[in-house]
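Translate structure to sequence.
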């Protein structure tokens, strides 16, 4: 197999390891907790997911677009900014945790303490992606997976959400140490410069807006259900989406490998043909996975999610429909990111806010099931709009190929 093929395999396996970590964290937490305890853990984990997405957008997505001999310095700067930013946000979360009463406050306090560790460990993946060394990211993320499963499996049944958050966060320390050691040959001798991240017009600011209205808005809407409706609604929605974690591996792999592969195809026709075929495959896989979960016996479902299974299983048809259309939407947005990067922001703003409105409106009319169907409807409308925008691109639109990257220092 060629070096490029090995890199592609390593990248897919890395995405699988990262997604498996998220899935198993939620599965183990659900099995160890009561329904109310898992709802508290879910509130904290959704908060972490939003912060992780913001860091990915502001630092990670802008970093992977960097090219040339300065990549080592760019990676060192990204690590430094992530460390400083996550420490500052961690202090704020700890203060919020001290202000909130009961188990929820303790869980948020724990998140504030471990946030720099987990965000920095995940951020190293984007350094290795920019450097085209996915095998190093795979090594660190595989260790992360082993450590977090061992740490959570060692917790007693009925453990509090705060204890589970601490175990989850501190278990990232070995992977963080390994990742920094593997990154060292690429950044040796370079100097970090955090000033570009603070300047107006930094590319990450545009990506943050896209994330905020694309993914963050729906996550915050789910959090809103926990504040204004009931935390059990958050637990049910989070439990249902956890079962579709394997599809996130495919979606993330498409986003990770799509740009360089599509960049070698050239014009619009070849690019759209490839992404449309991939979208149909992802939609079919999503529908098949949803059917398999819907037919899963209750006994096996409770083995996976414990007490949360009862609420999550009722949402499987809606969540399955959402993930099926997300496969089509992901490939449409990938096409636009490659052929017309500036075309995605307006789509994300309009249709993501529409999805939030449908989620909240669905909950008001039909409870948690209505919220899930609202998310599915929003994803379907976004996919339709994105593909319509693809058809409006000029026939001369073409992707740019990638450039070589520096080798690690001896």
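Result:
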């Amino acid at each position: 197999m060629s070096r490029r093929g090995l890199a592609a395999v390593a990248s897919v396996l890395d995405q699988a390891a990262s997604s498996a970590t998220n899935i198993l964290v939620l599965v183990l937490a659900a099995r160890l907790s009561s329904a109310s305890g898992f709802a508290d853990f879910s509130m904290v984990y959704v908060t972490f997911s939003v912060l992780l997405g913001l860091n990915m957008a502001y630092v990670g997505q802008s970093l992977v677009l960097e090219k040339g001999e300065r990549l080592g310095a760019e990676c060192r700067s990204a690590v430094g900014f992530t460390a400083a930013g996550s420490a500052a946000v961690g202090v704020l979360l700890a203060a919020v945790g001290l202000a909130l009463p009961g188990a929820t406050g303790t869980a948020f306090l724990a998140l504030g303490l471990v946030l720099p560790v987990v965000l920095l460990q995940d951020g190293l993946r984007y350094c290795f992606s920019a450097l085209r060394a996915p095998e190093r990211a795979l090594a660190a993320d595989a260790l992360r997976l082993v450590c977090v499963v061992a740490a959570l499996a060692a917790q007693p049944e009925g453990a509090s959400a705060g204890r589970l958050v601490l175990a989850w966060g501190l278990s990232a320390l070995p992977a963080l140490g390994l990742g920094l050691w593997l990154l060292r040959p690429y950044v040796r001798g370079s100097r970090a410069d955090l000033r570009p991240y603070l300047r107006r017009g930094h590319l990450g600011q545009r990506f943050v807006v896209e994330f905020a209205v694309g993914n963050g808005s729906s996550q915050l809407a789910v959090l809103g259900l926990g504040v204004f409706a009931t935390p059990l609604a958050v637990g049910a929605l989070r439990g249902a989406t956890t079962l579709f974690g394997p599809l996130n591996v495919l979606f993330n792999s498409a986003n990770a490998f799509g740009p360089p592969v599509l960049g070698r195809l050239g014009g619009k026709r070849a690019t759209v043909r490839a992404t449309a075929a991939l979208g149909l495959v992802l939609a079919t896989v999503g529908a098949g996975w949803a059917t398999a979960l819907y037919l899963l016996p209750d006994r096996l479902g409770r083995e996976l999610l414990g007490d949360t299974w009862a609420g999550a299983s009722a949402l499987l048809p809606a969540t399955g429909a959402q993930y099926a259309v997300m496969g089509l939407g992901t490939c449409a947005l990938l096409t636009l990111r490659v052929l017309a990067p500036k075309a995605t922001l307006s789509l994300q703003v309009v249709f993501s806010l529409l999805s939030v409105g449908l989620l909240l409106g669905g909950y008001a009319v039909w409870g948690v099931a209505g919220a899930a169907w609202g998310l599915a409807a929003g994803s379907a409308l976004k996919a339709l709009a994105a593909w319509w925008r693809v058809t409006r691109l000029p026939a001369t639109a073409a992707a740019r190929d990638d450039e070589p990257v520096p080798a690690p220092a001896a």
